[in-house]
Amino acid sequence: MNNVFISEVIATRLSHDLIGNIGAVANAVELLNEGDESDKEDITNILNFSSSVLSRRLKFFRLCFGLSTASVKTLEELEQITADYLLTLGNPNSPIEFEMHVQTPKIHKLIMPSVMMMADTLVKAGKIVVNQNDEGIHIEAISEASLNDKKLKNIQSILQGQEAEENPSTYAPLYYLMQYLEESAVPIKLSGHTLIIGE
Hints:
The protein is globular, with a radius of gyration of 18 Å. The chain has six helices and five strands; from the N terminus they run H-H-H-E-H-E-E-H-H-E-E. Helix content is 51%, strand content 13%. With 199 residues, it is an alpha+beta fold. The protein has one domain (3-197): Orthogonal Bundle (Helix Hairpins), CATH 1.10.287.130. A five-stranded mixed beta sheet has the order 1-2-3-5-4, covered by helices on one side. Helix 2 packs across helix 3 (75-86), helix 2 (40-65) crosses helix 4 (108-119) and helix 4 runs antiparallel to helix 6 (172-181).
């Protein structure tokens, strides 16, 4: 794992997470330019939905993977941006909820990629809960349905220095987090369905 690899997997993951809605916007604009008034309401709905998803994801990605100078000012801002990102995932009728209990927004570079990674383990609707205590940060994925065992096993494998059994870009948030914490030697581990940083 090196800086080139990290850049490659992040670029691939972000492209994957944005391309669908970018394509939807492009197709909607093309239909709009064709001038069929009967489809205007449907096209407008597509544009509104896709642009909302893109805006929320880009705002989250910028703070998660961007320069540290793009900081989060308040806990309320961190909670809102993260909750908005989670609402772009899965079925809009079964949204992923978010609950956060932390002491400072300055740890957003730890929280955001962790939330992104653990949200990937949710198969259906659920909740991501972040708690900070004196020993570390816990990011827990909770759902009435079973979690994605394959993703959990791959997260465990990566944390143990092994390769994932699928496209590594899927685990870009985890690779980024590990690289971000490498020099500080802060430990990361997975316990059940909870990612633990600093314990």
